[in-house]
Amino acid sequence: MVRLLPSKERLSKGSRVSAEELAADVAVDAVASEQTAPTDAIIDDDMPESDLVFNVSDLSVYYGDFRAVRDVNMAIRPKEITALIGPSGCGKSTVLRSFNRMNDLIPTARVEGTLLYRGVDLYDERVDPVEVRRRIGMVFQKPNPFPKSIYDNVAYGPRVAGQKKGLDDVVESSLKKAALWDEVKDRLNESAIGMSGGQQQRLSIARAIAGDPEVLLMDEPCSALDPIATARIEELMAELKDEYTILIVTHNMQQAARVSDRTAFYSVEVDEKSDRRTGILVEYTNTEKLFSNPDDERTENYITGRFG
Amino acid sequence: MADIGIESQPILPLRGISIEALASPARRARKEAAIRFIFLLAALVSIAISLLIVLSLVREASVFAFNIDWRQTWGQIGWFPRQGVYDMPTVLVSSLIVTGVAMLVAGPLGLGSAIYLSEYASRRTRGILKPVLEILAGVPSVVLGFFALFFLSPQVVERLGRNGWLVIGAVLVIAYIAIVASWMRKLIKREIDTPLSTQLVRVAALTFSVAFGLILIWWVLRVAGPSDVDNGLPFVKRGGQLAAAAVGVGILTIPLVASVSEDALASVPQELRQASAGLGARKITTTIQVVLPAAVSGIVAAFIIGVSRALGETMVVFMAGGAADAARFTDSPFEGGLTMTAAMASLATGTDNVVGEGLTFQSLYFVGFVLFVLTLGLNIIAGRFVNRVREKY
């Protein structure tokens, strides 16, 4: 029989990943994987706080009095792809959405703990979520072009930020970065609704990078696409990594293994009395290690298909 | 299986099955047919009633149309059906004024409340406000007629009067110029390789727009000028006037415009709002740039339904419109006037024994027919427009 959820004993033993544990993991990785992949070289422990893009400590997100995810600790380094994986309901999308304060759109949502972006607390009361979202862009699960022309879709971000001149260049370079320019350059004034799903998702990416963000959050960006369109998006992510820090939530473990530098595995713990489910971060380390030699038994069970 | 009374039948072999086993019992089939017939009858009766109404309308209207001296229906001093003077522009223009002013009230207020309810209000606030709006929709029009006659006319319209009109008129003119100008700018921007026919259509449309603008300015200034009915009051005539009735009609139309637009806004997928927010747009930008364009077909439909409603509203204009039975031609909202509906209602009060010359009674049908054609045309245009917008996106 497949066990769907980890047992209580193991949860109580090591469910919380503290900063120290994480640091220890990272140091081991750096040594262990030196020969395997060159990108691993940048995973080292002594990156100063100000160079980290995000530093999350003890983050919990609540919807009303329901705690959706608790005690998350993660450090996100620049120009890496970080994948968030885990079973449904483990709070990975919730965590992703707290990175650019999209959870603010849900009236009952509330965040505890600190989430530093470049050393600034994103949930400080002086911080304007609109400014945050201009620096930290987002691509959603379903391609969702606006009912406007392709041009107006891409120019939307710069326009709402007040840019009026040079939009043609921004549109062109964003579409080129999103590997869409050649397909649409002759029909920029046509409605974006007529594009294929894969094109629409690349348009969403072009739209997100047109505002010149530093970080791209991708919430299962390929789950509505066919394998060919998915492969194109994955290629694209590898190219975008040179310029952007990318966080991706995915249900597809192979995808996480293929594209990401680091992977965070989330799981669910169930309160037996109230049957409430809370997401927890089980293990966060570099992708190679997580998929080949995870420290936590729950991670191993998940990636080998024994659970979730 | 065996204990429900089918022992007498041989048990069917596993592989073979007879057609009777799958056939429906004849009684059941007859019952279905009867039920079907009853519902068909209901549909047919409704359609037949509608057709008969149109037929009777057309019959009496054609009596009027074939027997009237057409010079009596155009360019006369006003609408005096008992004297045989049937000036159509009098009732048409009054209806137009009432509908226009009513939409000036119902459009912004209706769409505004729809935007608030759909985009800004919390679930609890919406739970309170929506029923309140629906109560407004249920106010009998006779009550609003009184309200228009005894409050709006003396307290609002007479106070604001022609000065208020100048402000409203100026806003109208500026809005019109802005719309035409932005439309022109768009045309100029995309002018590459346009065929000659398109160019000609554009020139024609532009000429028409400018001419209409000039007429609009002339009309605003004319209405703002002194009244030709000198009744000792500085600005407007005491009693009812079209403006007061129109505001009343507008209030009646608000809930309709609001609820249809709110449906349209609520049907815009939540993902679009999230995408816009995710790109760093503020709420008002999201609403104006994304939600309204996505809902435009529904909003246009709401406005056209509102116009239909305002055009057909009878009791308020009849009570507060400032004229009974007959009216002189006016193009000013600050004078009494007779809309098409009010003209019909005021003649046919309680009896079909309408006192007047030969065609007085038939004239009502004729006006009714014109109203019917207008409303029908409006609905057809609305349908086509909405479809075109839908196809585009």
Describe it for me?
The complex is a heterodimer of chains A (about 300) and B (about 400). Chain A has about 300 residues and is α/β, with parallel strands linked by helices. A ten-stranded mixed beta sheet of chain A has the order 5-4-1-2-10-9-3-8-7-6, with helices on both faces. Chain A starts with 7 loop residues before the first helix and ends in a 5-residue tail after the last helix. Chain A contains twelve helices and ten strands. Chain A has one domain: Rossmann fold (3-Layer(aba) Sandwich). Residues about 1-45 of chain A have low confidence and may be disordered. The longest helix of chain A has 14 residues, at about 20-30. Chain A is about 35% helix and about 25% strand. By secondary structure, chain B is an all-alpha fold. Chain B folds into two domains: about 35-65; about 70-160 and about 240-390, MetI-like (MetI-like fold), CATH 1.10.3720. Chain B has 13 helices and three strands, in the order ααββαααααααααβαα. The longest helix of chain B is centred in the middle third of the chain and has 49 residues, at about 140-190. Chain B is globular and about 95 Å long. Mean pLDDT of chain B is about 85; it is low at about 230-235. The interface of A and B includes residues 105, 189 and 207 of A.
